[in-house]
Design brief:
By secondary structure, the chain is an alpha/beta fold. Helices cover about 50% and strands about 10% of the residues. The two termini are about 35 Å apart.
């Protein structure tokens, strides 16, 4: 790929590392894999330009701990986190700390490649421009009061069930509102909604 960028994959599961490396390699990306955050940190001084993909839950050092250490070391690589469904709220916190995207497992190849492409693009400059924020605010204004409640709950990492308890409605009703919110906000994923929420809050 352009600029000889490298995708750094951090995951303790060899099957996941191999799967990611295969999909990215097939798409033309050069890949380097690490079985732990500590292993990646050992190469910080010689870390090739590119992007980092890390799992959230790993033994020893979690993905979030790795992200904090990278920030402390002033490593500027964009980061994408991989998360299980139960860790979505963790992924939301990661995005607040600067992670460019997260992918819920299981994810499809197209979602992975789109996230990597978008993540690499952030290296060219900040993605939070005023026009993008205005567009998000315009879309938010089209939501009903209840849809906005669901948007706020989901964008902070609440599951449909917990959002339903929070709002005093059924999980099925939350699903319906959530589908409406995704359509009106033109969001393709939960990560899109989180990104829009952070943009609107700036």
């Amino acid at each position: 790929m352009s600029e000889n960028l490298l995708i750094h994959i951090v995951d303790d599961d060899p099957a996941v590392r191999d799967s990611l490396a295969f999909v990215l390699g097939t798409a033309g990306w050069e890949v380097r894999s690490y079985q732990s955050g500590a292993e990646l940190l050992q190469r910080v001084g010689a870390l090739e330009p590119g992007l980092i993909i890390t799992d959230v839950r790993m033994p020893g050092m979690s993905g979030l701990e790795l992200i904090e250490k990278l920030k402390d070391l002033e490593v500027r690589h964009p980061v994408i986190v991989l998360t299980g469904h139960a860790d979505v709220s963790m992924a939301v916190e990661a995005m607040k700390s600067g992670v460019v995207d997260f992918l819920e497992k299981p994810f499809d190849d197209e979602a992975l490649l789109a996230a990597v492409k978008a993540g690499v693009a952030t290296r060219a400059g900040p993605g939070k421009d005023q026009s993008a924020r205005e567009e998000v605010l315009t879309r938010l204004a089209q939501l009903t009061a209840r849809e906005r409640d669901v948007f706020d709950a989901v964008a902070t990492g609440e599951s449909n069930k917990s959002a339903a308890q929070l709002l005093g409605i059924s999980p099925r009703t939350v699903e319906i509102y959530r589908a409406n919110v995704m359509e009106k906000m033109q969001a393709r994923s939960l990560a899109d909604l989180v990104r829009m929420s952070l943009l609107a809050a700036d």
